[in-house]
## 1
Amino acid sequence: MVSAGSKYKHKINEIICQWSYKYKKRALRILETHQFIGNATIIYRKYGGVISYEINPTTYERVINRFPDAFNLERILQKGYDLLDFINSYRRESYYPVILPNKPSDSLIGIRKLNIYSFDIVDIDPPGSPHEYFPNIFNLLDDNSILFVTSGSMHYARFNPISAMEPYNIGSNKGLKLTRRLFQDDNILIIGFYIINEGLKYSILLFPIFIHDYWTRQKGVQRIGFYINKKNNVKNRNKLSECYTYDPILKVNILKCSSLKKGSLNLCRFDDTISINMLEDYLISRLNYLSSI
Ligand SMILES: C[S@@+](CC[C@H](N)C(=O)[O-])C[C@H]1O[C@@H](n2cnc3c(N)ncnc32)[C@H](O)[C@@H]1O
């Protein structure tokens, strides 16, 4: 069963894939670091070839049964195929190939072997913090690609928000006083800020696209999307600075927040009353803007 929160997550995935597919005018190369039973894979494979990892053996078994026609990742890597050629050769009428490792796999280890490829969509959807995927994941992102990041439930953060912030270099010693409440509300902003700054170290600009879903906030599931731009010039940097403002008190960049009606939007909070059409309009206009920079 797909929860209402996942419904939005998957709808957003789909809107962004449709846009990228039209923008790139070719099949997409998609990487899922956390597959679960393949509910996102089913959507992704309509727009391109998908490489997916799942660590849990029982879940992996379900995935294998669900995609009996999946290709073997190890074999493809061994043969050194061009990923796009491979995807196009095995395109079916209404979907593209799914590529899976031959056993349950930790994607943190697995993605090190993928560095011969670059991807148009990368989806990091862990149950906990995504920080371990940075900075390595930047090597796998193509220019004008999309990075989805979930900051998951982060169970331990509820009990010790300060230690949960350690990976993000903004612990209490940096003057940030985090309460549990602040952590729960704003960890996606902190993680977003961290990821943008990591990107800047590698001359990659990450433009935030949208942010969390109030409906699922109770469970702590929050998503942020980034548009990747590898032209790290002054014009682009200025554009990026328009995407967030600096708050010297919190020492955290707070992404600008405005309502859907107020034109240029960087941060989108929504509840389950938002219509899919509104969400789609927002995402498409944001992507059109980001791709024109
Ligand atoms: C939130 S679910 C993913 C949901 C999926 N992306 C979707 O949208 O339907 C997280 C999954 O990540 C798996 N997982 C956790 N750590 C992993 C790792 N290091 N590598 C691969 N999979 C992992 C878990 O077993 C779980 O099934």
## 2
Amino acid sequence: MLRRKPDAQPAWRIYLKANAILLTVVHFTALAGVLLSGWSWTGLALAVTVYYVRMVVVTAGYHRYFSHRSFRTSRVFQFLLALGAQSAAQKGVLWWASHHRWHHKYSDTERDVHSPKVRGFWYAHIGWIFSDAWNTTDPRLVPDLYKYPELRWLDQDGYQLLPSFALGLAFLLVGGTFGLVWGFMVSTVMLWHGSFAINSLTHLFGKRRYATSDDSRNNWVLAILTTGEGWHNNHHHYPSSAGQGFFWWEIDLTYYVLRLLAMLGLVWDLRRPPDDVLAGPLARRTRAEPAGFASAARSEASREGLGTLPGFPLH
Ligand SMILES: [Zn+2]
Ligand SMILES: [Zn+2]
């Protein structure tokens, strides 16, 4: 059985870490770039467009492929997905997937990586990333990915940020300072908070369709802002689905792109929840749940969703 200690560090120590300072510097650099080069609606349109393209890559790569293996692809496209995901500067795909699988295993319990219910909003949103407790990648959580030397290489400290440096340089060469500030810096900051919001806000605000053992919620506003990831209660109910919008009215841009890639033959075997999983079990209430609801037994569907990961331990 895997054992990892939950984070017990005081908040001030977490927020004084070198990578926390680096992230703060990037925020201020993006802000300074906008202030010095002047406000631009064209720049904002560029940042938003680039943000949506990058969010699809982040969610298809880091989350739906590497963390949940919700579709299959070739080894070459797998590596391209890793490069694309890591251009978002959210560490290596092995690190990302290992911690995300841990989140699903212990959602909203003391052992969760980033539960806003247990450790508060800011820790769940950003603090956990800087904590020593979650610094390293545990290969036992990602044996199906760890066997690829190219992914292990890209996961190393010295190389994790190479894809994002390359993307930043490409924006600078093509679009000059304007391209670097709006296309890369601003979109990167937006991408961080869009991704972080899934860990924080979707466990706090929205409706609960399914009786999962955590406090995950479906939130249509976040689904639009995060290319489908806002259907987070659906996702915790059946994590191995390639689509997180389970019904036609649940907008899921990442899934539409995956369908397109499947038509082109670049990915295949996109998983969807079977009918009995779609049917329930349903949550008793759709808004704020009473305290203690999260202690209910994990639904069989969410167990099955995790259990489909090759080599991923359930206990
Ligand atoms: Zn979650
Ligand atoms: Zn997930």
## 3
Amino acid sequence: MAAKDTSNKTGKTGLIFFPAFDWAISPTHPEREERLLYTRDQIFEEGLMDLPEIEEYKPRLATPKDISRVHFCVPNVEAQVTEAHLIAAGSVLTLADAKEEGAIRNGFALVRPPGHHSMMVVHGNRGFCNINNMAIMVEYFRTRYGHKKIAIVDTDVHHGDGTQDIFWHDPDVLFISFHQDGRTLYPGSGFPNEMGGPQALGRTLNIPLPPGTTDEGIHYVLDNFILPVLKDFKPDLVLNSAGQDNHYTDPLANMRFSANGYARLNEKLAPDLCVLEGGYAIETALPYVNTGIIQAMAGLDYSHVREPDYVPGKFVQSAEMKRDIEATIGQLQEIWDNRDRLVEDALAEHGQFYRRRKRIFYDTDMINEGQEETVRLCDRCHGYMTIASQAQKGYGILNSAFCVSLPRNACTSCREDAREEFEEHKEDSKFNYVYLQDKQKDTYHSYETRTRNQRDY
Ligand SMILES: [Zn+2]
Ligand SMILES: [Zn+2]
């Protein structure tokens, strides 16, 4: 299906709330349902839900197929998700449809559990995430509505390492993440030299910021780098992984961003859709930040949105911090300006296949995963990819999986070879599970070698 006009038809802002009452890592864990309940109270108190600019939507369930378009869930989708996950992912798809049908101009899915730490292969929960709501929306937009180029801006304080992993080799998805420097915060990644696979160099842009970065620093990054890069890239859609843990009261991080700073960020970025990620200052930040963002999205005055203890000028950026941030942006600007040459050089350097090994740690579930990823550098398509994955928990092997992924524009030769690798590993039983993700046909297959049982979506 060809991309169609998604310009403003009614000007409404769509909202979905899903606090997931029955999902928490533990009762006292910061990732719990109160995260959204205070926000909801504040929004009702402000009378936002009665405004003609705002339209509330009811969530629906995402299907296993929606999830398989992005993830290889080991052993299967059902084992990795609860109903809450399906509703959170389904909520973003509901807003995607409303946007595409022209019923809304923009929208915000205030849902949990969050998703941006979930990678392509899923053995368990990482950083409170099992499945990546944002990535599921991107692949849905492309499959269902034919969009090609999509930009994701991740404004959570933690590096969006899962989203980065999923689109690492995809030159049509621009992923920009700013976050507190990974040397000082989970998940420890997100440096400028992480810039995408050989065919997509410069389409992953990581902006680590020093702890204590203020509104001034973040708006410098936005004005001088993120907005001009988006203008260059010309995406069909701009999507925002809206994490609110850059706030100065957040208990899990050390930044000094204000609710007003977040609202102004949203106004400038003007994302088509926002998906909530983290944010753990349940009473002191979330209600203010969310209210400000919603007002900015709806084109309403947000100047009165202010935390009770905030006065303008509360935080001042040091000269050293300013120099730090400017140097990082200088480095990233060079990557962005030279992206096509970087790709050319990388393709000349690698042979027919590109390989990388990864170690992935699941902090919540204490799983250690080793991956070997191989991508064919094909000159007729984006090339097929395989991931050999082995997960360990404690002393024992938890599961092993061989995953094959075919891109949307797969050429005949990549199709045949990918299919062959899938069949070969079904036979040789080296792995517990074998998967084939065929984005071109929108079909997904998972095979258990022990029972010789195959599921198709
Ligand atoms: Zn976060
Ligand atoms: Zn090919």
## 4
Amino acid sequence: MVSDLLKHYPVLLKEIISIITPQHGGTFIDCTFGQGGYSKEILSFKKANVIALDRDLESKKKADEILNQFKDRFIFRNKKFSQLDNLKVKNENIRGVIFDLGYSYTQIKDPKKGLSFNSLGQLNMQMGLNDFSAKEAINKLNEIELEKIFKFFGDEKEAKKIARNIIKQRNIKTIDTKILVDLIEKTKRNKNYKIHSATKVFQALRIFVNKEVTELIYGLIAGAKVLKKDGILAVVTFHSLEDKIVKYFFKNLSESKSISRYMPEVDQPETLFKIVKKKPITPSIRELKENIPSRSAKLRYIIKKKNLYNFETDILKNFKYLIEIENFGNKLWKNFLLFFQFYF
Ligand SMILES: C[S@@+](CC[C@H](N)C(=O)[O-])C[C@H]1O[C@@H](n2cnc3c(N)ncnc32)[C@H](O)[C@@H]1O
């Protein structure tokens, strides 16, 4: 149980509110409820309703507190945002869909979650509604699979050597948090003294265990679909891979396809969304002082131009190589293993 003294600081809250303008009413989907920082602020505007989601069951306690205060205007579901499509919100006036990616302060400080290399807890990393833990991934996947995870999700330059040493080490003893941290420290030649040697591998494992790329892509598609005309899709990212995916998706829906200058001029179909600011919004100096983890936060948003709920995007094709890496985890699914034991 995490102490109530450990408070999460909602990142870029003022900026989010000024973009989505809840004072004008409507329904807002808070896809990453966490400690309820965004939801509570939106609900402080009397005409606004909130539908909130979070994959972590621990969030429900906070959600129950808010529900007591705002019974008629607040709904919480313990669901992953990739399932936003199943919410049946067709008749709602959805004016905003918001994602504040990553994990909250309370999650990183919870030893049960084992998200941090400083934690004495298990090598776990499950944020909620998962199929396997980081311990299972490290101790069961093969060398090539581990190397790809560290390389593509952590941008870890020494991924190959680390993966090889993991395979050697686990033949001697099951790998837990401490063994993994020591192994990475011993393996890495090129140490960057600004960040801990294990940072990139731990980020990669967290993304893999929670299927964060697949979640984000399906979440963005579903979010863009449910919005009404003039609705805002806003995303706060915390690392370059997330930002790359969001930037690609936003550009993909907001820019006309370029046609060769040698072709006759034709009218371009109007795009479904528009980008107002090309550059992401980042925390103010004041916020950076008050909340150091906000330093890597980037906020991007797009505005829907029409009431159209289906569109084409090639985002799945463009990031297929990452989704395929996350699918290495399918063989670790408990149900999947039971299925095979039963039939074969
Ligand atoms: C940075 S916190 C959000 C904090 C929140 N904005 C606040 O002010 O309290 C991110 C939250 O998103 C949740 N989350 C991450 N991935 C998710 C997913 N795919 N579906 C639903 N919730 C997710 C995490 O469990 C975590 O509680």
